[in-house]
Each structure stands twice: as structure tokens, then as C-alpha cells.
Amino acid sequence: MFDPTAVTNAIASIFLFLSLAGAAAFSVLAHLRFRAAFVWIAAGAIVIALLSASALTEPAPVGFGPLATALAFTAAVFGGSPAAATALRLAMGSSVAPGLHGGIIVSDKATTAEERQGIVAAPKREVLRGGLVIGFLERIAAAGSIIAGFPEGLAIVVAVKGVGRFTELEAPEARERFIIGTLASLIWACAASLVVTIAVR
After folding, report:
1. pLDDT (tens digit, 9 = 90+) per residue, 98-141?
2. What is the C-alpha to C-alpha distance for residues 113 and 115, in angstroms, rounded to an integer?
3. Residue 126: strand, helix, or coil
4. How many angstroms separate the CA atoms of 145 and 76, rounded?
5. For residues 73 and 62, what is the distance between their CA atoms, to the nearest angstrom?
6. Is 42 within 8 Å of 195 (Cβ atoms)?
7. What is the Rg, in whole angstroms, of the alpha carbon atoms belonging to the chain?
8. How far is CA 187 from CA 10, 99, 181, in A?
9. Torsional sign, CA 194, 130, 90, 79
């Protein structure tokens, strides 16, 4: 006998699997060879995965949970850096010089009269070093918290990152970059991992 609910679930499960696989694949591609198009395709795939997971009227098939978790976790962790880079380019362009250790170069506050008058350039330093590694760890923790059903863990991640970077946020460029990059990275990780929470509820 024809069961429309079962057909709807089957179609939603197929779309869910394909979109999660696409999101994971394009997230890894964007990480390995940055292209804005890869980021947008991966973002679209995550949106389709969220819609497909929401369309399920019952939990996904039994063996689907571990596969969905692996794909969503891959998309969350690898796609966050390219997503943050895309958001920073949209917001700030190329107005900030990159540093040698993954940070940005900013001018220190002028301390001498010559520096304040612009006669001598204020010394420069690199801030927000190690952002790529910190971003990976941040998304692993954020996605893991959501998938494990402990969304309160996000507050811990944000608090630890904020405290760790506090002394580097004097320059306006560093503050803007920190806020935009962190939000883009966390939103990406949360959206990708939320698929699992919805699908395997």
C-alpha cells in the first residue's frame, strides 16, 4: 500500500545524504584550494541539508546517523576557515596586511612626539597569530558540543577564545577581524552540525 509519508522521508533522506556529501566535499576543496565559489556551493549544500533534515517526519534510517555525523563534522571543521576568509574579504577587502604567522600586521600606538606627528612611523607588530589552528580547534569544539547535545559548550568556546585574544584586540582592525572571523566560523560550524541534531532527533 502506498504510504506518502514513507516516500517523503525517503526523498528527504536522499537529499540529506547528497547535500551533506556535497557540503563536506566542497568544504574540503575550499580549504585545500580556496575559491569563493566552493564556499558558496558548500553553504548552499548545508542549507539544502538543513531543509531536508527538517522535512523528515521521523528520524533518519538507523545506519545513517554515523555517516551524517561524519559528513557534517567534516563540513563544519574544514569549511569554517574558507567561510571566515570569505566573510572577511566581503567586510574588509584587502585593507590589512597579512603577517608571517597567520596573523595581521597592525601599528602600535604612537608613544613619542615624532610618532604622534607622523614624522616617524609607529612600530608595527603581528597580532591574531595562529588563527588557522585556533579556528580548527574552535570548530571541533563547537560542532562536537552541538552534535553531543551540549550547546552550552559554545559559551565555553567563545569565552576561552575571547580571554586568550583579549590583549591583542587594541587595534580596531584586530577587533573587527576577530569578531567577523569568529562569528563566520562558529555560524558555519553550528549550521553544519545542526543538520545532525535535526536529522537524528
Report:
1. 555 455 555 556 455 544 555 545 556 555 566 678 888 889 99
2. 5
3. strand
4. 12
5. 18
6. no
7. 21
8. 28, 25, 10
9. negative
Would you tell me how many other CB atoms lie within 10 Å of the CB of residue 76?
Answer: 31
Say what the pLDDT of residue 84 is. Answer: 86
- The C-alpha atoms of residue 193 and residue 144 are separated, in whole angstroms, by 8
Question: Where does the chain have alpha helices with state H?
Answer: 4-32, 36-55, 64-92, 113-117, 131-147, 153-165, 172-199
Which grid coordinates belong to 45?
549544500
Among positive and negative, which fits the CA dihedral 25, 89, 133, 98? Answer: positive
C-beta separation of 92 from 176 below 8 A: yes
